[in-house]
Amino acid sequence: MGFPLGNVLACIISFLAAAISSAGGVGGGSLYVPILNIVAGLSLKTATAFSMFMVTGGTLSNVLYTLSLRGQAGPDGHPLIDYDIAVVSQPSLLLGASVGVVCNVMFPEWLITALFAVFLASATVKTYGTGMRRWRAETAAVRRILEGGSTSAGDGTEEEALLGQKRAGGLQHRWVDLVVLVAIWLFFFAIHLFIGGDGAKVC
C-alpha cells in the first residue's frame, strides 16, 4: 500500500520550503500551510497543526546546530545567537502561539483562511520592502568601494565595542539565559498541560 502522490509531492516541496526557510532565518509556517492544504489536500486546521509541528522540529534542529557556531569577529569568536533578545522575545512568541492555537480551535475555517491571507500578504510586502532597502544599501556600499571610497571608520570601532561587551559576560551569562529560556518554555508547557480540553482530539 503506497503513499498517495499528493502526500509524496507535499513531502518533497516541504523539504525544499524547510531548506529555504532555514537559510532565510524564518519558521516557514506560511509556506507549510499552503503546501499541506493545497498539495496534500488537508483541511486548513489540520494543515495548521502539522505546520506547527514541522516548524518546531525545524527550529529545534536550527538551534542545536547554531549553538556550536561562532562568528568571525575575533580570535575567540562570539555566539551567533543573541540570548538577550531571545529571553525578551520568547514569552511573546509563546503567548502568541498559545492564542493562535485557541483561535484555530474556535474560529471557523473561512475566517482562519481570511486572516491567514491577510497575514501572508502583509508579511510578503514587509519582506519585499526590507529586501529592497537592504539591496539598495549594499549596492551603494559596493559602488563606493569600487569608486575608491571607504566606509566610516567609526562603524568598525563601534561594532568591536559591542562585540566586546557581548563577550564580557562569558559562558556563564549564556548558560543563565539558556536556563531562563528553558524555564519559560516549561512554564507555558505546564499551563497547556493542566488546561487540557478537547482541542487535541483528532477530527
The secondary-structure element order is: HHHHHHH
The Cα radius of gyration reads: 21 Å
Q: Characterize the main sheet.
A: none
Structural class: mainly alpha
**Which residues form runs of ≥5 with pLDDT under 50?**
150-154, 199-203
Helicity level, as a percent range? over 70%
Count of discrete alpha- or pi-helical segments spanning 4 or more residues = 7
For the termini, the CA-CA separation is 23 Å
The average pLDDT value, as a whole number, equals: 76
Beta-strand proportion: under 5%
Say how many strands there are.
0
The dominant shape is: globular
Structure overview:
The chain is mainly α. It has a domain at 1-68. Helix content is 78%, strand content 0%. The protein contains seven helices and no strands. The protein has helices at residues 5-24, 29-39, 44-66, 83-106, 109-146, 153-168, 170-195. α1 (5-24) runs antiparallel to α2, α2 (29-39) packs across α3 (44-66) and α4 runs parallel beside α7. The longest helix is centred in the middle third of the chain and has 38 residues, at 109-146. The radius of gyration is 21 Å and the shape is globular. Residues 150-154 and 199-203 have low confidence and may be disordered.
Lay out the secondary structure.
Elements: H1 5-24, H2 29-39, H3 44-66, H4 83-106, H5 109-146, H6 153-168, H7 170-195
Helix pairs in contact: 1-2, 2-3, 4-7
Give a quick precis of the structure:
The chain is mainly α and 203 residues long.
